Input
Amino acid sequence: MKKMVRQVIHEWNPFGLLPHAPVDEFDSEIEEVTLSLKDATTVEELARRIQDIFSSSFGEPFGYEECLNTAKQIWELAESHIKEGEYYSERKK
Output
């Protein structure tokens, strides 16, 4: 899952830091998003967590819609991995 989350976050490229920043620029945020994905029960909840994570890390507010688009991409990829048999800790119901 972490690899998948990394791919989406790097494509999103908050603040346009990549490719000039180190490739591990978002590693701590990616770790937090991956953990949040395991617990989130809706894509909207994941979006709020992404918004909180990046707002806290960068000290600037991130817009919800931007985070929602990123959350949707992560959610869809996670769902397709589950269908393909790649399981991870179940989301809380």
Q: What stands out?
A: The mean pLDDT is 86. Residues 65 and 76 are 16 Å apart (CA to CA). The chain has four helices and no strands. Helices lie at 2-12, 27-39, 43-58, 64-83.
